[in-house]
């Protein structure tokens, strides 16, 4: 049975899957373009990783790292794009942790019923767009994720039980009563 060489698929940028795979060659030098910082910034805003950028530009990851070192404008464009995307996700996550009320536009059908001069019933229908307030409850998983990452000492599922191991004697107070080992006469 013949096996096919299958390139890894890129789920974020599916068009990158059709590009030829970059091969590092000591003889062939990849030419850096002045428009690369702009392209890299836009791709990073969409969530591109260094691997995605390397695939897009048709270079290996090492070349991309060298471009970041040799071209400060390229490095800055990548960093700014990644930070902006991260901030958008963080803001969205934060909003998901809160109860909130949003206004949405909704189409409603209005029916008007009246009687004409002859006493005949007339119905007219029209569609109106109205703003409706909708309550969005806080997402428990988002809250849990936020708290565990924001303050892991307080909100972690795993607790450090070092204090419990140091105190090995346990004293129970069962209240006053008779000692079963004493005999009563």
Any overview of this molecule?
It is a single chain. The protein is α+β, with helices and mostly antiparallel strands. It has a domain at 10-99. It has helices at 36-45, 50-57, 61-70, 72-96, 140-150, 152-155, 162-166; strands spanning 100-115, 121-136. The protein has a two-stranded antiparallel sheet with strand order 1-2. 10% of the residues are buried. Mean pLDDT is 82; it is low at 19-25.
The first-to-last residue Cα distance is 93 Å
- From the helix content, strand content and strand pairing, which structural class follows? alpha+beta
β content, as a range?
15-25%
Number of helices: 7
Overall spatial form: flat
* Spatial sequence of strands, sheet with the most strands: 1-2
Number of strands: 2
| Assembly category | single chain
Q: Which residue ranges are poorly predicted, with pLDDT under 50 across at least 5 consecutive positions?
A: 19-25
**Could you state the order of secondary-structure elements as H and E?**
HHHHEEHHH
**Level of helix content?**
25-40%
Tell me about the largest β-sheet.
2 strands, antiparallel
Radius of gyration: 33 Å
Mean pLDDT: 82
Task: Describe how the helices and strands are arranged.
Layout: H1 36-45, H2 50-57, H3 61-70, H4 72-96, E1 100-115, E2 121-136, H5 140-150, H6 152-155, H7 162-166
Antiparallel strand pairs: 1-2
Helix pairs in contact: 1-4, 3-4
């Amino acid at each position: 049975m013949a096996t096919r060489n299958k390139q890894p698929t890129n789920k974020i940028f599916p068009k990158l899957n059709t590009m030829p795979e970059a091969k590092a060659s000591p003889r062939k030098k990849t030419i850096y373009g002045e428009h690369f910082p702009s392209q890299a910034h836009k791709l990073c805003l969409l969530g591109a990783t260094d691997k995605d950028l390397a695939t897009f530009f048709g270079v290996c990851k090492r070349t991309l790292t060298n471009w970041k070192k040799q071209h400060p404008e390229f490095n800055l464009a990548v960093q700014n794009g990644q930070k902006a995307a991260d901030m958008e996700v963080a803001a969205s996550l934060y909003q998901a942790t809160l109860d909130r009320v949003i206004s949405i536009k909704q189409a409603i059908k209005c029916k008007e019923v009246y009687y004409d001069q002859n006493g005949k019933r007339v119905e007219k229908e029209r569609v109106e767009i109205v703003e409706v307030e909708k309550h969005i409850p806080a997402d428990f998983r988002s809250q849990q994720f936020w708290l565990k990452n924001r303050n892991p000492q307080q909100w972690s599922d795993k607790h450090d039980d070092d204090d419990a191991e140091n105190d090995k004697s346990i004293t129970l107070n069962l209240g006053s009563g008779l000692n079963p080992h004493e005999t009563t006469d």
